[in-house]
Amino acid sequence: MSTLLHIDSSVRAATNPNPDHDSISKNIARRFIETWQENRPEDDYIYRDVGMNPPDFISQDWIGAVFTPEEKRTPAQRERLSLSDTLIAEVAKADVILISSPMYNYGMPAHLKAWFDQIVRIDKTFDFDLSRGDFPLQPLLSGKTLIIVTSSGEFGFEKGGIREDSGHLAPHLRTLSKYLGVDTVYEITAEYQEFGDERHRRSVANARQRAENLAVELSISNLAQSSNHESADV
Fold this sequence. Notes:
The chain has helices at residues 24-39, 60-66, 75-80, 82-93, 110-119, 169-177, 198-233, and strands spanning 3-8, 44-49, 96-102, 126-128, 137-139, 144-151, 182-190. It has 234 residues and is α/β, with parallel strands linked by helices. The protein has a 5-stranded parallel beta sheet, sandwiched between helices. It has a two-stranded antiparallel ribbon with strand order 4-5. Helix 1 runs parallel beside helix 7. The longest helix has 36 residues, at 198-233.
């Protein structure tokens, strides 16, 4: 049995009275989740909508609590870090992580960045050792798979695309993913939303199909790995 952690970050709901306002990224992610659960209904599923329920931003008091030795933290400091502890535990438990995000102003929503800021934490998801020279930070988690679902109003943010230098969402997610313990990353992208033309409709349809196909592929692969582990344990 595996654990699937699903993070949505659009401030829009998946379903609205006006369908034109439905979150594209959330609906593509939903296609992945529904397909996965059809194949692996026994898996644990953890869901957070950080767009609708954003985590607290970190603060000076939060940083002070992080750098206070655990045995010396006050009750107030432990309470300050309780959300961070919970979010880190969810990431640590997950085998597969799905993050859906619209591109806001060419980057990730502040709500999603707040989630990462609560999780990327010294001695929890990374350690720091100057003996490593110019690369003192080392992730502590590993072995996870990340699926990134993004939507954007424009297009051409991929490598070699006409807006390659303006797309900071997927590169930022990839950079931070190592602190989630991610070894393998898949991307699903829908573009052209602001144009609302056939290119947009085709891009969304392709992204939905890609989500379904990838969920089938990974869930079956994951199932095979689980079976092999069970056989080895017999």
